[in-house]
Design brief:
about 40% helix, TIM Barrel, 8-stranded mixed beta barrel, about 240 residues, 7 helices
Length: about 240
């Protein structure tokens, strides 16, 4: 087995420097190759440096998360400070609620009620304009009747609460999930996941019924991000001031 400890120190240091430089170059290339995206989504808190970099590469909309107080992980939810910074730098904002949305156990009517109430509370706290959209994430490749029925029941409750709070519902997920939930009039907008192997991706992509299209993930300006392509057919894809 290869053992770094057997190498001279200067070779170890040289290897580390080369690796660091290669990583930095890869990150820089990712930032440049954003596939005509004008939106970016991320689950970490933004700062001035990140936003300035996004402005330089042509990003128009920053998408951040709503989550329960018991966050999936620290720093996932947008903060009031970020809300001010994003507006100060001239970006539109988009939001998505997500809490362990890769687990089917998260999709129950009770969870839909809890999550939607929390999303509306956060929307009000962030001064999100009434009539704008809150996306809800469905982050798995489910295609069984059991799973789709569970997701449907979740959205039925969530839509009722979100609508009463003055907002519209969007869905993030596979083509099959977008088609199912929008087909039942439980969401107005679809944000199509970049998971191309998930059911219904190709058909929904070709349909051009998606409002945003997530592209590959990587690191840009020190943050793990996904870039997102906006469908020009829709003036409103969930962004707001």
């Amino acid at each position: 087995m290869f053992n770094l400890r057997r190498l001279p120190l200067f070779l170890v240091l040289a290897s580390l420097l080369i690796g660091t430089a290669a990583y930095a170059q890869q990150a820089a290339d990712f930032c440049r190759a954003r596939l005509k995206a004008t939106a970016v989504d991320l689950s970490s808190q933004v700062d001035d440096g990140f936003l300035k970099h996004m402005k330089r590469i042509g990003i128009k909309t920053v998408i951040r998360y709503y989550d329960l107080e018991d966050e999936t992980f620290d720093g996932k939810s947008i903060t009031p400070r970020e809300r001010v910074l994003i507006k100060k730098h001239g970006f539109k904002l988009g939001v998505v609620f997500q809490h362990h949305s890769n687990r089917i156990a998260s999709f129950t009517p009770r969870s839909g009620l809890r999550d939607a109430k929390r999303a509306v509370v956060m929307a009000h706290a962030m001064r999100q304009p009434r009539g704008s959209t809150i996306y809800f994430g469905v982050d798995n490749n489910w295609d069984s009747d059991h799973a789709l029925n569970a997701v449907t029941r979740y959205f039925k409750v969530a839509k009722r609460v979100v609508t009463a709070g003055g907002y519209h519902v969007g869905v993030y997920g596979s083509g099959l999930v977008c088609d199912t939930i929008r087909g039942k009039n439980l969401a107005q907008k679809c944000w199509l996941s970049n998971a191309k192997s998930w059911p219904g991706y190709a058909d929904y992509y070709r349909s051009q019924q998606w409002h945003m299209l997530q592209t590959r993930e990587g690191v840009c300006a020190g943050h793990p991000v996904d870039f997102d392509i906006v469908n020009r057919r829709f003036a409103d894809y969930g962004q707001f001031d």
